[in-house]
Amino acid sequence: MVLNVQLFLDTMAYASVLGLLSMSLTLTYIVSRVPNFAHATFAAIGSYMVLIVVWLLGIYKTGPSWGVYYASLPLSFIVVGAVALLQYLIVLRPLAKKGISIDGLMIATLGIDIILVGLLNISADFLEEIFQQSPDKDLRKLVTYPRSGYLSSYEPTIMGVTASSILGPLLLVVSTVGFYLFLTRTKFGTAMRAAIENPQLAETLGINVNLVYSISWFIAGGLAGIAGVIMVMTTKLNPTMGWLLIVSVFAGSIVGGLGSLFWGAVGGLLIGFLEQFGVYYTQIILGALTGETVSLGNYRQVFSLGAIVVMLLVAPQGLASLNWGKILSRLGLRR
Amino acid sequence: MAPILEVKGVDAGYGKLQILFNVSMEVEPKDIFVIVGPNGSGKSTLLKTIFGLTRIYKGSIRFNGEEITGKPPHDIAKTGIAYLPQTDNVFAQLTVAENLKMAAYTLPPDLAQERISEVLERFPLLKARLKDKAMTLSGGQRQILAMAMSLIRKPKLMLFDEPTAALAPKLAAEILDEIIKLRDELGITIILVEQNAKKALQMGDKALLLVGGRVMYRGGAKELLEHPELGALYLGLKK
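ok -> structure tokens follow
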């Protein structure tokens, strides 16, 4: 069994998506203590922004272009950030003020998720209609894209490698390092940490906690939007694409410990690699044993759910709670 | 002299749970005003109410002649009132330097740095711990840090909620001495909620005795200390 290069590249993109989503989900959880079930659908909205960019910038005519990324990344960040902010301001904050329990708020996020998927379905119908009615022959070819489009055909390559395989990890590293610097080196970032740790004390010092929380939700949504741009390069565009991902995203956050953005990103990455390689090698092993071709792509969540069970049994507080100094010393990687 | 703080007929509590009933008090500038009472009498809730952290159903609160009833805490903080909670009064996960920066959050950068330098001169022990997380400080050091954080915005009125809770007697005495210095040296008006009623009444100018959320006594602190009945009945003071 040798390492499949294409599998590795695909995994890099997929794991980066999970890393970004698990990190941003952890941010909303730290701020509001609510597991946000709409988070993966935020990414799906980001994915639809790519289709809109392909359409409006005429990339469907010109073929692969960096314009897909130049335009989609900021657009997705802003649009999805705004959706997340509205979810917080219109639904979660008023409900929390009324004293609704965390369980109640969690159910509310499920409701929002269903509404968002409904809106994506309406948008998909709307886009199909526009593409079908268009006099532009090339645009009419996009008619199936809103419900089952592969947008990877519009992304450029770098030395023969699809850009998402390189851009995904790069965006994850830049987001993680950038967020770390923002939280530790800027006044507002420090205020964010302060408001998350002790909102009442932060308020007494003149920090506008509501503003801090609102911006946190916007950033978390924005990061999910960016993840959606990479996601659509590896997955078929569909209004319910987020539903297929939410278990893996939660698994990443839980493995990370739900309390640290860095470990959330690491958890997402690990789950991405575990799912991809787990499915691939299990297929090979079962194929060798049965002598038939085995396809386990639909069972990838078994690996992420398994990771949740193992992590809760071994280290319920996640990777963040482990004594890494001691672990590295035992492995002989640190004196 | 016009009072710096006027609380008039305030009913307040948390959600639908009313804790304070028709509470009124006036605090003169540069006084140490002591709030005493048995456990659960609403002392801490009264401080929180002044600072906008509870729900006010009725009544009004004026600070320096300005109506502050119903204002959010971050706006009240800007008027010149500082509130030091009983516990969790520093950010444990932030360094001492970051805690001080957060205390200066609303100030322009130059002024913030100047004020931070000033409080570090006043509390030199913090200078040596600037890079340490606040969670590594002792209880007394945390109180000093909390005090330093409050002083950064040069408040006119400071609300202390049991600043000596869980401190050793010697440390507690040092903290209370520091509070007296704030009034004497900086002219800051103090409202103090303190478990050690005897010590608090000895250092106070005026006092309020709260029982079951209602005012039972309002007047001189020494007079309450020497009151033939109230001290023994509600504060565990010997006759």
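Strands of chain A lie at 157-158, 161-162.
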